[in-house]
Amino acid sequence: MRSQLNALPVAGQGMSEMLPKSQTATCVSREGEQKREQGSRLTANQPCVPVLSVERKPLMPTTPSRARRWIKEGKATPFYSKGIFCVRLNGETGKQVQEIACGIDPGSKKEGITVKSEAHTFLNIQADAVTWVKDAVEVRRNMRRARRFRNTPCRQPRENRACGCLPPSTKARWQWKLRLATWLSKVYPISCFVVEDIKAKTKGQRKWDRSFSPLEVGKKWFYGELANLGKVELKQGWETAELRTQAGLKKTKKKMDAVFAAHCVDSWVLANWFVGGHIKPDNEKLLLVTPLQLHRRQLHVLQPAKGGVRRLYGGTRSLGWKRGTVVTHPKYGRTYVGGTSNGRISLHALQSGKRLTRDIKPNDCRFVTFATWRTALPLPAKAGSPRVGN
Asked: Domain count of the chain?
């Protein structure tokens, strides 16, 4: 692994082609010639390129043409940050920044995030929520009870350590929002986070009210952690609706569609409320973000195979590779690492998460970057497949 990391290109050497020049731009890698439509997949949702200083502090974004000129002149180094194309300056420069707001519209299945200044809308993200933790905790509980029932070696039951803490599913949901906010604050000089304050409607019934209490506890924890990144402003749901009406925007009822009117319309009006500058959205392009579901290591699978043998299952490492790592392969191109079996690793498609193969030698892959989520652009109006954003 260390030898692969050392083989990565040095800053400024042979990386100027990373910034797209046209929709038919191609990228020649060490493994062979592979056509990559970088121009269409990046400029389609990035009107501006994030800029970092020498100290890796976020500065005001710039235009793709200026970033291309900086790279050609050796003034900046290109790199990808979790699916977003960025440049890092190689010399000292001014550090004046304008106010940039990040609007967040939380949701149970999907959520919208918008990064905006007074002059430009830099990014619109529609992210999938983390929804599988509750089922995973239930499976783990059932497996532990089954092992005790079979009188197999196991630890003694412990006291309920969840009292006073966030439930695992609630914590995972709000941690995912915090991860996205932390990532964006590292590439954009965000000065304020504007969040729609969702509330649970209580009925005075113990069973009903108790089911909504994790939501209230989770959001308070999220607001406290978010305050460490910048100023936090809260808006009620009816206030968001008024802002949307004033802008003449409508929200679709099809919440699962990958369109601006599903969730990002709310996050945009929240960000625009703080920085102003627009009456109508100037950028409605979306970047779809999906968290990777990494199965935690288990003692064995739930169901035994023939002969009562229960094979091992789960984990976050695959023969030295961290699962989710983006790699390049001579045949399959840019993919990410999945599971392992019989001394081989599996590779998955970045745009859909579909497993492409499960018979790859680890030495045939070349490291690109670590990742815990995948990014893609929405499907076009007609038939086609989602285009990857990194």
From this structure: 3
